[in-house]
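Data availability (excerpt). The following record was deposited with the supplementary files.
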Amino acid sequence: MIPAKYTAVVFAFFMSMLMAFVMSAVLTLLNLGFIPDFFSRWMRAFLVAWVFAFPAVMVLAPIARKIVMKLVQPPNKPGEIR
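Predicted structure:
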């Protein structure tokens, strides 16, 4: 198992991989259609996208978290009525 202190990095790794995988498929399909070499072009686009997505998630996730925390109401404390 991976130590808990690496949670943010592991999350960024998988989140960036999954998003790059899906988005590169969608954009490759929209731009080229389902052509004979679709899969190889998609995989190339995926790898290029992931190279940029992983560091982007590492940098942007804390910013997104701060924005969300300003927009979302904190949970009620035990015994507190709102």
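Summary of structural features: DSSP finds two helices and no strands in the chain.
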